[in-house]
Amino acid sequence: MIPFPSPEEDSSLDSAEISAQIEAIRPALRGYILSILPHPDAVEDVVQETCLFLWERRADFQAGTNFKAWAFKTGYFKALAHRRALQRNKIITFSEDVLHRIAGAAEQQAGHADARLSALSHCLRELGPADL
Q1: pTM reported for the whole predicted model
Q2: Pairwise CA distance, residues 11 & 20, whole Å
Q3: End-to-end C-alpha distance for the chain, whole angstroms
Q4: DSSP letter string over 36-61?
């Protein structure tokens, strides 16, 4: 993995690279947040906030670490902040403990999905053109 520059050293290629990573993770991130947030209408807002945070803090990302894990953890905290805002407005939500349990299960499921997609991709590469 190529290290990402600090904002002072930022180049268009590196910005494009981090942007591509954010866009690539977006569907999985949306699924993850949808699994832990009981309000589907708010999911896209939380996804947007998460992606914006990832972009603004791109210099904080540690090269060689798991971008998806960083994005999911950020999404978790953004969903938690959204839940607290709903709670302040007297809208019923899951408790933090339940939200934490759901988030753990969703992260585990996302990990399994990556492995399954990788295996499927490998199998498809093994097929000949006539088999496709």
Answers
A1: 0.62
A2: 14
A3: 32
A4: H-S-HHHHHHHHHHHHHHHHHTGGGS
Exposed e or buried b per residue across 95-132, where buried means at least 16 C-beta atoms within 10 angstroms of its C-beta: eeeebeebbeebbeebeeeeeeeeeeeeeeeeeeeeee
- Is the CB of residue 17 less than 8 Å from the CB of residue 4? yes
Q: What is the pLDDT of residues 80-119, one digit of tens each?
A: 999 888 777 766 666 778 777 877 777 777 777 777 778 8
User: How big is the CA angle at 20 (ends 14 and 25), to the nearest 5 degrees?
Assistant: 130
pLDDT digit string, tens, across residues 51-81 = 999 999 998 888 778 999 999 999 999 999 9
Domain boundaries, the chain: 12-131
Contact 51, 26 (CB under 8 A): yes
* Residues ≥6 apart with Cβ < 8 Å to 40: 34
Cβ–Cβ < 8 Å for 55, 18: yes
